[in-house]
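protien #1 (seq + structre)
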Amino acid sequence: MPEIELSAGVIDFTDTGGDGEVVVLVHGLGFDESVWDEVVRELRADFRVVVPVLPIGSHRRPMRPDADLSAHGVAALLAEFLERLGLHGVTLVQNDAGTAQLLVGVRDERVGRLVLTSCEALENYPPGIQGRTLHAASRIPGGLFLLLQSFRVPFLVRMGSSLGGMAQRPIPYALVRRWYGPLLSRRAIRRDLAKFCRSTRKDTYLQAAEKLAEFDRPALVAWGAQDRMMPPATGRRLAELLPHGRYVEIPGAGTLVQLDNPGALCAELRRFIKETA
């Protein structure tokens, strides 16, 4: 994978290249670029698709010990990544984490279109039982390490209170091993995740929502119709806050819309980009 050195450390990314419009796909907590593989395969013929591996759990390279890995710090890294790659007018697509929202009104000059799929927003942060459990475990000495051991057991992973509650379709355990391998094997990666979790502020996305009304470019909110962790009502409220926002639901999908129904998500992305060209 190509890599780039940013202020917090070196991060990996994938880039399909080409001269098409640039689509940047942003993953959530505990995932890496592979969570977007099906979407990349469907879009790469017509778009340049870029996927950074952000340092929020499944990254393979630990960040510098003094790196700001709060939600705002990770958003700043995303903005720095777009700048360093010289990307302009990108279609920025966010899933699970709310990172992209934190660029609006702050460092969104390189964003031409904003797409929010099921993600943290408004008062739903940390989101669901999964987010609250992770946040609580990070504040107990050794708690995060103990919680992560559950990802060694496929049965526990499939439970509704774990990854199983984020998708309507079974998640291949090979992907789970890939995503959680760095956390289970490297103390420095767990340190990075703990920094992120411990910096959680309940009002982070409520404050970000105040700036959404300033976003004067096209926006699409594409929510999983069966999402239990990020309720569709939250997505509808986000779309109403965005001046040029449109709301659609992805059928048969939970939080991980790109895994549950990548075809429908890609169709909505293509339609959105074409209509706002």
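ok now protien #2
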Amino acid sequence: MSVEARLMWDEGVTRYDFGPGHPMDPVRLTLTMRLVEALGLDKHIDVVAAPAAGDGTLGLVHRPDYLASVRHASGRPTEADERFGIGAGDTPAFAGMHEVSALIAGQSVAGADDVWRGVTGHAVNFSGGLHHAMPGRASGFCVYNDAALAIARLLERGAERVVYLDTDVHHGDGVQDTFWNDPRVLTISLHEHPRTLFPGTGWPEETGGRGAPGGAVNVALPAGTSDGAWLRALHAVVPELLAAFRPQVLVTQHGADTHFEDPLAHLTLSLDAQRAAVESCHSWAHEHAEGRWLALGGGGYAVVDVVPRLWAHLVATAAHAPVEPQAPVPETWRQTVYALTRQQGPRRMTDGRVPQWRSWQDGYDPADAVDQAVLATRRAVYPLHGLLP
């Protein structure tokens, strides 16, 4: 029997922990799930724990030598091989790294399976969205690329057209690279400009390999871009490409690090704009992908004030049980926040803004930096899809 929406969740994903002081504090996952429960959303969505991805599944994207290296570092973190991006810099090795990374990947892959087989219309894995991991290298806090693995599973099952839309502040480089030459996958990334932010990729001229011209779409936005301009850019590029590509499944990544409170980046979105983007992705899944939607988490380092609220809205939207923007945050959850972090949690479910944006069809300003970014993307990729810039 099919269900309307599934939340892929196993408490074990909170063991994805790079240690004290690391920006990717797993408390953000715990607090998100506790907020989902405090809001009663778990009564509106089927909560399911999937098994960890096995080597056969991980091998759909990742190289055998890389998998072996992660396994070795997982058992002996002090012996991590830095040639594979593990053990230094952003992605230090930790005990059990392979097991928990495979568990997170398993949630995304199972969600993709369920959506493709019609078991559910929508699936959410907010512990996923680890979009920087490469086939043979860890990167940017990401060990296994669950987003790419979920897409690879969809292709393995027979999907012919999948769109991946990445709204994280950082470029979705690992997913783009994995499907660079695959015409069955269209990757779209809306991110801060590579001049000012890791990983330094995602230029509008990156439009796909020889095997898939137009298969990569990149909207590189200037630092400081806020609600109206960001939403204008999103709507100026995505809907037309979805209509042209006609995806059978929409996979979206909802990094919370576009928020103005995020400590690692320089866009200035409110929760209200982020919530509006979630609602648009939901609508686009129904309009362009027969309702098949896999929604993932991603970055986000304001782990108390921002991440749990955004991803609770994501769960609520997928469950067709939206939480009103002006709704108060449950006091029981605020008590949980204090108990776990000794911080005071936010009091309402958004920042209290009313995001508005001007349609691209109303005209553009060639002197505006965001409009320049949008036009650069449209000029680079639209003709490859038979569209006018």
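The mean pLDDT is 97.
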